[in-house]
Structures are given as structure tokens and as C-alpha cells.
Amino acid sequence: MIPRFVAEGIKGSDIYRFKEHIDNCASCKEELTIQFLSSEGVAHLESGTSFHLENELFEYMSRALKARQMTVRMRTLMIVYEIAALFVIASIFIYAGS
Questions:
Q1: How many other C-beta atoms lie within 10 A of the C-beta of residue 61?
Q2: d(Cα 24, Cα 18) in Å, to the nearest integer?
Q3: Which of 5, 77, 89, 94 has its CA 20 to 30 A from that of 47?
Q4: ∠ at Cα 2 (26, 36), nearest 5°?
Q5: Which residues, in sequence order, are CB contacts of 6 under 8 Å at separation 6+?
């Protein structure tokens, strides 16, 4: 999953499993660091911008986790709105039938 994470990010609930594994597996964390440095470091060198590996990697992971959390929140909010809409529709039918 490391190349996929570095290339485009990991979608869905896989990001949580990925983060947990990276936090608990030293060899995978080292591999992630190497691959991230290879891709992001070269991009920063080419553009001439400064680069701090640990901060950049932490920010990249944080953005991926926040994006997943936002998706979950949006789905939850949509479900709440759908339930509220169904309640309103049911109320209208009940009121119209009385």
C-alpha cells in the first residue's frame, strides 16, 4: 500500500488500517519514509523549495486522515437529512390522511 499512498493517497477506511500498521511496523515506516523522500524530495529539489521530511510526511498523513473523517461526517450528515426528510414526508401523509 505504500506506493499507492505516496502516489495518490489511500481512499476509504484503508487509510486507518494503513496508519495503524505504519505506526506499529518499523520496517514499513522506514520504507514509507524512503519512498516519500524519493518522490516528494525530488519534487522539492526540482522546484527549489525547502523540505523537511518528517513534517511533510506527517502533514501528508494528516491530510489523508482528515479527508477520510470529512467523508464519514458528510455521509452521516446526509443520512440525518434523509431521515429528517422521511419524517417530514410521513408527517405530511399522516396529516393529509386525517
A1: 19
A2: 10
A3: 5
A4: 85
A5: 32, 35, 36, 39, 40
Q: Which residue has the cell 522506514?
A: 30
Residue 24 is predicted with a pLDDT of 92
In SS3 terms, the chain reads as: CHHHHHHHCCCCCHHHHHHHHHHHCHHHHHHHHHHHHHHHHHHHHHHCCCCCHHHHHHHHHHHHHHHHHHHHHHHHHHHHHHHHHHHHHHHHHHHHHC
Which residue's entry shows cell 526540482? 46
Q: Cell for 67? A: 479527508
Could you read off the pLDDT tens digit of each residue along the chain, which spans 98 residues?
A: 888 888 877 877 888 888 889 889 999 988 888 888 888 777 777 776 666 767 888 888 888 888 878 877 888 888 988 898 888 888 888 888 76
